[in-house]
Every structure is written in structure tokens, then in C-alpha cells.
Amino acid sequence: MSQPPPPPGNPPEFGKPSDGAVPPPPGPPPPPQTQQPQMQQPQTPPPPPGYGYPAQTPPPPPGGGYGYPAPGQPQPGENPYAQPVPPAQNPYAQAPTQAAFQPQGPPPPPYASGAPQYPGQPQYGQVPPQGPYGYPQQPYPGGPGGGRSNNKLVIIIAAVVAVVLLAAGGVYLATKSGGNDPDPKPTAKPTGSGGPAPTSAPHSTELQFGWNKPADKVAEKDNLKTVFGIWFTDKYVVKGEIDKVVAYDEATGNQAWTLPAPSRGDCAAARDTYQNLAAIQYGPSCNKVMVFDLTTGAQKWSVDLPGATGSKTDFDYSQMAISGDTVGVDWLSGSIGYRLSSHAILWQGGNGNCEDDGYGGGSQFVVIVNCDYQTYKVQVIDPDNHGKAKWTWTAPGGTEVNAIVSTDPVVVVLGTDNSSATDVVTLAGGRMQSRISLGTDKYDVSLGDNGAQDVHNVLVSKDTVYLTLRSQGDSKGQVLSGIVAFNTSDGKQKWVAKPADKQDILAVDFVDGQVLALEPPDYDVPGQLVTVDPATGAMKKFAGFTDGSKDHVDLSDLENYPYWHNGHFYQVTHTVYEGNDDEMYLVEFH
User: Fold this and answer.
1) Which of 151, 463, 532, 539 reaches 20 to 30 Å from 357, CA-CA?
2) Exposed, middle or buried, 508 (CB in 10 Å: 0-12/13-18/19+)?
3) Is 156 helix (H, G, I), strand (E, B) or coil?
4) What order do you get walking across the sheet with 479-487 strand by strand?
5) Beta bridge partners of 497
6) Distances, alpha carbon 119 to alpha carbons 128, 141, 351, in Å
7) What pLDDT is stored for residue 124 in this prediction?
8) What single DSSP character describes residue 183?
9) Which region holds residue 120: left if phi is over 0, alpha if psi is between -120 and 50, else beta?
10) How confident is the model over 225-274, as pLDDT tens digits?
């Protein structure tokens, strides 16, 4: 079994606290007192020159953090929306020189740290001996156990406070194996990969409550049930619910079909789809994968995950992702990739010091790799080539990769032992293109429990990252919030947009090339949807809510999230709690 990480060392340059976005006060910020774990060299094949392992990171350029507008900036009433901000006012957002990430000598060979190689264990990219359905004929040495990254542990804490954290056990190598499907694959038509939608459906300028779907009861012994999965077709909204998946007519709320999917209640669901196919885990220990048709509710195929017994909890804290005709599943003690249309195996994870620790789908398949809690990497992989990496980027020492915001461009969230979100980083071709420091409690970056892609309040287009400022109250009791835009090319701040009436606001989606944001209804606020111009940050009302909407919209629950699709606004829950009799799976406005 592996040992816990050694005592922390020097603080990393990444993740330095700052005051957030918008113009900084003069003078450099004081150095932070964060801590950094020691490092091991990664256990996967060496990246090409330039990806390297981080040398000592240089300090940021002079300047303070970025807080709310400083004196001299336009005040409310002059322009209540966004004002362009001069370049270079985010000292942490400058792309570092590439030299800071060059290797200090030749790259290490695979397994350079002396990780033991067990008899019969395949090298990276090799195909293990396969039995029926492509599973290994013999189990990999070492039993299931902990050894997942800190972001998985954060998920454990957030999902069930009463659960005792698993002790760190053996660690596992994501040894991706080849499949048995050599035929050419159709071109992917991904969804949810980030970026503006081309057009929007007609919508009402005054949204009114349409229908809702009450959640099923949760037994006292279960405490809570997670209900991941929300998908849309041209006429249905499809929701993962307790022990089932249900499609509703978006116009009427009438039930269109129901697909049984009994589970213990914390199984994963892939966010993206492919040709109206979606995928979930289910079963008594989340031990099965099911692919189904969103238009008919018909099951296309179902398969037991490797090593499944039907009763063991081997598949705790799983996550899934779909990119094109590929679905990947990652859990505490392994990972596997399937051809979505046929369930042929494309790769499979084994034991070792490195392992897949998060998947992102959509336009590309992106993988977070965790090497013994010490080194974290991001890879874009080729599913048709046994999951081999097209490129690899290694995160700076003392940081971990906790979320995948977008797969095209590749944008990830970095964190540390002390914070789950410290930086937002854009990667291109295995190199860091830009970095945005999140400061201390300035941004509302919400990381959910349904895998690495379960990120809220952050949007990404081809050239811009949009962050939501965390709501704060001023001395007059008014809410201060806003949307901040940064270039993906260099991390420089473009503008800050704030509601004229000083209300809460959060980024939701894209519509007609604009950012769609929500000012939630409250006891004395009717609420509205606004669009934000990506070039200037200027706000414009998109749709209001009719009187009484506040009785149906409650985003104060951390597990309720807003969605916009086809002219309909939805409030969707991800978790149902025992004893809460008024929770809704879905609330619809049109």
C-alpha cells in the first residue's frame, strides 16, 4: 500500500491568493503561506520536450490582486454595465515564459521512480490478455482501495458528510489497452464542449411557470440520493431520477418514457451525448454501464464493469464522459473505455503509481492523470489508438488538477491541498497558454459531484473564459456580483459586467453568440435572464420572470442548477435529501 503524502514543503507559485478580478491596488501582494507536497516523477511515458516537469516557478510580476473597481473608475449610473479594463491589470494572468516549464535535463523513462512491474502487467498502451468481453484473464495484482486524488476526497466530503473517508490504499496505473474494433468510426457530433450555440429557439420575454416534477422520497437510512444526468432532445428533457431515467415533453411536462435503472443512488452519468445516445452507471454498486437512446428510452447495451461482483462497492465515486463514439468510465480502482455504439473495449486501466483521475468529453477526450498524489497531468487522448495520449501537460508542483471546464479549448481548474480551485488554466498542444488566478473567494467556481466536468458558473468560448464573481453584500445590504471575461490566449482581463440594480448574477450558457446569465428571483426581486456582449460586456435584458416565479425557483440549494434549452428555462436538482418533502427533480418555465 502506498503511504500518505509527505509533509508539505514550499508554497507553489500557482494558486497564489490575490484579491480577485478587476483593477489591482498598487504594490505587490504579500507572499502566501500555502503548502506544497513533495513530488515524484510521473509514471507514464515521458512527454515531448517543452511539456516537461516544472522548474522553480518565477514570482508573478509586480502588482496587487484584482478587486472591485478602484477609485477613478466609472461609478454606477455612468455605465451600469461593463467598462473595458486596460490590459495587464491581472498580474497573475500573464502567460509565463516557457522556460519556467522546461525539463531540467532529459525526460525520465517510464516508471522512472522504480514502481514495481508485476508479472503479466502490460506497459502503457499495450493490450492485456483478454477473456470474454475483453476483460483481463487474470486480475491485476493488488486489491481495490483508495489512492485517488484529493478532488475525489473533496467529492466524498461534499456528498455525504457522515461517510468516513477511505484510507489511502494502493495506487493504480491507467494502463490503456487496445480494443477489438478496427473499423472506421463516424465523425463525432459532440455536445456540451463549450462555446456559443449558433442560434436559439424563440422564447417568451416574460417567462412563466409551466410545470414541475416532484422528487421521489428518500428513505431515512439512505440520507440522500444523487440523481445525476440531464439531457435534451428536440422535444424532450430527459432526467436521471432515483432508480430510473425519465423523459418529459418539454411543452407539457407529460411523461414520454421511463427506463428502469435501479442503483444505490450515487452512480455517475456522462454529460455529453452522441447521436442521441447517452450513458449512465447503475446497479447495486454502480457496477454496470448502460447506453440508451434519448428519443425512445430503449436500452442499446449494458455491461458489467471489470471486476464487478454486484454487491461490492468497488465503483465508488465513479465518473463518465462521452466524446464522439467513445464512453469512458473512471472509478476508484480502475478505468475503461468503450465504443459507444458497440461496447467494444478501447482501453482498460490497471494497477500502478499513476491512474486516470477524471474524464472530460465533448469535442475531445481529455484525461486527468494522478501519479501517487504527487504529480498531476492533463492529456488529450486518441480513443481509436488504445487511448494513447496525443499530448501531455504536467501541472506545476504543489498543484492538482481538479476539474475540466472545456475540452475545446482545453481549460482546467487547478487547486491545492488547501483550496479546490486556485487557478483556471488554458492548454494548447501540451503547453500552458494562459493562467487566471482565482484569488481568495472572489469567484464562484462551483465543482459538483458528478465527475471532473461537473463545473458551474464558468463558461468557455473559443477565445474567452467567463467567470462569475462571488456574491458579496455591501454596507447598504446590496448584493455585489458580476461576470468577468478573460482572454484564453494570455489570461488578460477583458471586461467586468455588473447588474445595474446590484443583484446577484451567474453565468448559465451561450445563446446567439452571447453569454446568457441569470439574476435569480428573490423575495423582493422578480429575477431575469440577461445577455452579455462578449466583446464589450454590455448587458441587455433577455427575458423576465412573471410574478410568483420566486415561489418555484430556489437556487439557494447548492444542488439546484439553472439550465436553458430551446426557449425553456429549467431548475434541475442533482441531489434529493431524506425528509425534504418539497424537492423537485425539474422546474420548467417558458
Assistant:
1) 463
2) buried
3) helix
4) 83-84, 493-497, 479-487, 464-473, 458-460
5) 483
6) 12, 9, 12
7) 33
8) S
9) left
10) 999 999 999 999 999 999 999 999 999 999 999 999 999 878 999 999 99
Q: Is the pTM of this model over 0.85?
A: no
What are the distances in angstroms from CA 441 to CA 17, 19, 420, 485?
A: 9, 8, 11, 17
* The three grid cell numbers given for residue 523, joined into one nine-digit string: 423575495
Instruction: State the Cα–Cα distance between residues 240 and 454, nearest whole angstrom.
Output: 15
Sorted by sequence, the CB contacts under 8 Å of residue 43 that are 6+ apart come out as 110, 111, 112, 113, 115, 173, 352, 353, 354, 371, 372
261, 284 Cβ separation under 8 angstroms:
no
469-476, Cβ contacts within 8 angstroms, sequence gap of 24 or more: 469/20, 469/21, 469/442, 469/443, 469/444, 469/496, 469/498, 470/441, 470/442, 470/443, 470/444, 471/444, 471/504, 474/502
Strands (E), 145-287: 206-207, 209-214, 224-226, 230-232, 236-241, 244-249, 255-260, 277-282
All three cell numbers of 548, joined, read: 410568483
C-alpha grid cell, residue 190 = 459532440
**Confidence class for position 70, pLDDT limits 50, 70, 90:** very low
Q: Give Cα separations from 409 to 6, 118, 462 (angstroms).
A: 34, 38, 6
Mean pLDDT for the stretch of residues 437-455 = 91
Distance of alpha carbon 430 from alpha carbon 410, whole angstroms: 10
- What gap in Å lies between CA 154 and CA 156, rounded to an integer? 5
In angstroms, the CA 133 to CA 523 distance is 56
- Please tell me the distance from the alpha carbon of residue 250 to that of residue 238, in angstroms, as a whole number: 9
- In which residue are the cell numbers 500502478 written? 352
Give the burial class of 452: count Cβ atoms within 10 A of its Cβ; 0-12 exposed, 13-18 middle, 19 or more buried.
Answer: buried
**Can you tell me the mean pLDDT for 104-124?**
35
- Amino acid of residue 266: D
DSSP tag of 43: S
